[in-house]
Design brief:
Number of strands: 13
Distance between the termini: 25 Å
Strand content: 15-25%
Order of helices and strands: HEEHEHEHHHEEHEEEEEEHHHE
Strand order of the largest sheet: 1-5-6-7-9-8-13
Number of helices: 10
Radius of gyration: 18 Å
Shape: globular
Helix content: 25-40%
């Protein structure tokens, strides 16, 4: 996962082939593979990317889902964890808790789960970081992965179970097709659907239009790159949407200590949203969930004390959020931003 850290200019071929930057060949997927009958149908989906082993964020998601039924009388949402639901949970109790609860729902592999299921000869976080991410960030992520792999080895059957998870899903929501990926349609750890790679609003680059055509989807829902956004496009005259939830288990905006979940539904969100878009009969929204309550932050500090890789990498983000703002994320009509 990207921390929103400071990048380093340039970079050599050797640097970009280092662990944490390369993209394993078996991470390859395709947009065309999404052109199939839906794997699931739902009236409402929560797409939960980047839970990052945060038990408090998971509890907040479950509470929010239950509120749709108890407060608004709507069916409870289908929870889809689209990868990287492990990360901070590098103690045996938290590891088992996260995986037991997540796997009761619909789950997919992210690069974290792929590396837990099939560790390579070198410790590699599998993030395939682009060159603008600093070497220090990459090194810390590799160190976190090494610690997490040790914990996973002590959990019988964990690697096998994570290795069976799919890497892409197609959902039917209100008659619209949603392609759910972790990185992008061509790679488990792809960065093409990062906000940094999005065109000026109003433009649709040929490569992205091609993915929508090949997948025959109306929406791509993704995460991996750790900064949320939603952006509308037009493909052959029809509306299309990319919505990236950033992270559920970490703050996503400066001065806001909440995680983000993508809600996709035939109904508007009953409790409001940060921003959202309408695609046909579909409502797609970013909804906020609490992710850094004091009790969880105390657990994090005890599990990852000062000097550890995760403390160095994430303490500032957990306290203040990344350098990302609602106006950076809501690449839509100004009226669509709830604030």
């Amino acid at each position: 996962p990207w921390l929103g850290g400071t990048g380093e200019p340039g970079g050599t071929e050797t640097r970009m082939n280092a662990p944490g930057r390369t993209c394993p060949l078996d991470y390859g997927t395709s947009a065309a593979a999404l052109n199939r009958p839906p794997d699931l149908q739902a009236d409402t989906l929560y797409v939960i990317g980047g839970l990052y082993g945060n038990t408090a964020a998971l509890a907040a998601v479950e509470r929010q889902a239950a509120r749709e039924r108890t407060d608004a009388g709507l069916p409870e949402p289908r929870l889809v964890f689209n990868g990287d639901f492990n990360w901070f949970n590098a103690d045996p109790v938290a590891f088992l808790c996260i995986n037991r609860k997540v796997l009761q729902h619909t789950a997919m592999q992210g690069n974290v789960e792929a590396e837990l299921a099939n560790p390579g000869p070198q410790t590699d976080c599998g993030c395939a970081y682009p060159e603008w991410i600093s070497d220090a960030v990459v090194a810390r992520s590799n160190a976190i992965m090494g610690h997490l792999q040790e914990v996973a080895r002590s959990a019988p059957g964990a690697a096998t179970g994570l290795g069976r998870l799919p890497r892409q899903l197609v959902a039917d929501v209100a008659g619209c097709r949603v392609g759910i990926v972790h990185g992008d349609p061509e790679s488990l750890a792809g960065w093409r659907l990062a906000v940094e790679n999005m065109p000026v609003p109003g433009e649709t680059p040929p490569w992205l239009a091609g993915w929508f055509r090949e997948a025959q989807v109306d929406v791509f829902a993704c995460s991996h790159t750790c900064l949320p956004f939603a952006q509308r496009f037009r493909v052959d005259g029809d509306p299309a949407l990319v919505i990236n939830n950033g992270a559920t288990g970490m703050p996503n905006f400066r001065g806001d200590r909440r995680g983000v979940v993508t809600r996709i539904s035939r109904w508007p969100p009953p409790h409001g949203s940060l921003y959202g878009a309408r695609i046909g009969c579909l409502y797609a929204d970013a909804i906020a969930v609490e992710c850094v309550p004091e009790h969880w932050r105390a657990w994090f500090d005890a599990t990852w004390p000062a000097g550890s890789a995760a403390a160095a990498a994430y303490s500032e983000r957990l306290r203040d959020g990344p350098d990302h703002h609602l106006h950076d994320a809501a690449r839509l009509d100004p009226a669509s931003v709830a604030g």
